[in-house]
Predict the 3D structure of the following.
Amino acid sequence: MAHKLAMASELVRADMVEAIEFPHLANKYQVYGVPLTVINEKGRVEGAVPEARLIQEVLRSEEKGEQREAAWHG
Amino acid sequence: MPVLKDKDRKMIQEWFEKLRDPVRLIVFTQEHECEYCEQTRGIVEEIADLSDKVTAEVYDFVDDEDRAQEYGIDKIPAIAILGSEDYGVRIYGFPGGYEFTALVEDILDISTGEHGLSEATLQQLAKLTTPIHLQVFVTPT
């Protein structure tokens, strides 16, 4: 699903990562169950969710990111 | 030694009949290949052998540092799946199980240009204004 979003948007890039082969990343992002989708380092979506939910979470993460940015400059 | 079983090979060949545009599978490994690196290169080369429209390119993560940077590769084994352009689709780790299905689907989607997303999702996606990096963690089974 993430790969499909990447195909459809120039702004999105999507990595699929095998958690067992990259334990340092699994540890860093606290992967306890799969699939886990990490959005811009901070957002987390657990499980295989429908595309409507995933895009909603992506937009929410972007909004939060902008708020952080605004707070930083404010 | 081939990784794909005859049965898998036949099934993939059937799926690949739907391919339209060329797809490049760009693999990053290293000279002294880690176990998973060797297997990843092997399976990608086997998949590429199943269609004239799919090509495999193999690079060394260390020696071809510039190339790795160009594709934003920061760990290996890595596969970048490209069509007429680079959509930012990557698979890290040996593509077995869940990742294998994803790889074959990616090849089909990119070749046919059909991601199959709904109109509603595309409308939401069009609202994005900043770059988004998605990392989907999976396990082989």
Remarks:
- Residues 40 and 93 of chain B are 7 Å apart (CA to CA).
- Strands of chain B lie at 23-29, 54-60, 78-82, 89-92, 132-138.
- Chain B has one domain: 6-125.
